[in-house]
Amino acid sequence: MYITSLQNPRIKDVVKLRKRSRRDEEHVLLVEGYRELKRALDNDFAPTTLLYCPEQYLGENEHALVERCASVGAELLECSGPVFAKIAYKDRPEGLLALVRQKRRTLATLTLPDHPLVIIAESIEKPGNLGSILRSSDGAGVDAVVVCDGCTDIMNPNTVRSSIGTLFSLPVVEASSEETIRWLGENHLQCVAASPHSNTVYSDIDMTQGTAIVVGTEKFGLSERWMNQPDTLVRIPMLGQVDSLNVACATTILLYEAVRQRSSTG
User: Is the CB of residue 10 less than 8 Å from the CB of residue 50?
Assistant: First the structure.
C-alpha cells in the first residue's frame, strides 16, 4: 500500500497513538529511526506495522531493515514525504516508523546475576532524561533499571528515541517505591544515592558488591522516603558555581565509577 493522503484512516490512527492512553489501550509503542528499530528487532520486539518513506532514508541499509520487518510478519505501509512528516517525531525524519507490541516486565520476573548493578530512577519527569539514563545504563552493562513512581511513560516515543532503542536491550521495570524498597532488601543490594550534603565522595565507596544506584527527579532530587533508605549517601564534587548536575549526567558518573571499580577487580 502506498499512502499519499493526509486524511488516510491508517495515518489518523497512527497520529492518535501520540497519546499514552491510546498506546496503552492498543498495547503498542512507536519506534522511529533506523538504530531504534534495529535494536528493537535485535531484542525480539517485532513490529506489527511499519510505515516507511524511502525518500527520507539517510543511508543504504534501510531497505534490508524493511525486508527484515516483513520477514517477522509486519504489515508494510509506504508513505509519501508529506504523510511521513505528519506522523514523524524526529525533526529530521529517517523514513522509518514502526508499531511494536509493548512488553511490560515486573520485579518478580527479573533474574539478577551475582553482584548485580541496578539503577533505581524515582519520578523522572522528562522522557529525554529517562532515555539518556537508559543509554548510559546499557553502556555500563547495568543488569536492570527500575522506574519508580514514574512521571513519564517509559514507552513514550521520545524516551525510545533518546535512549537510541536501549529501552529494548535492558530489563526495564516500572514499580512503586514501596515494592522496590522491599525488593532491594530481598536481594541484599546496597543502596547508593547522591546528595550534595554528604561528606563521602562517590569514588570512595565500594560498588563491586551488589549495588543499586538511586537517582531522583530533575527539580527536587530524591524524595525523603528514598533519602532515608540508602546505605550510603555520596556526593559528586562540584567545583564551579552550580550546585547540581542534570540527573542523567550524575547517573552516568556514578555508573562508570562502578564500571571502573569492577573492571579493576575483575
Answer: no
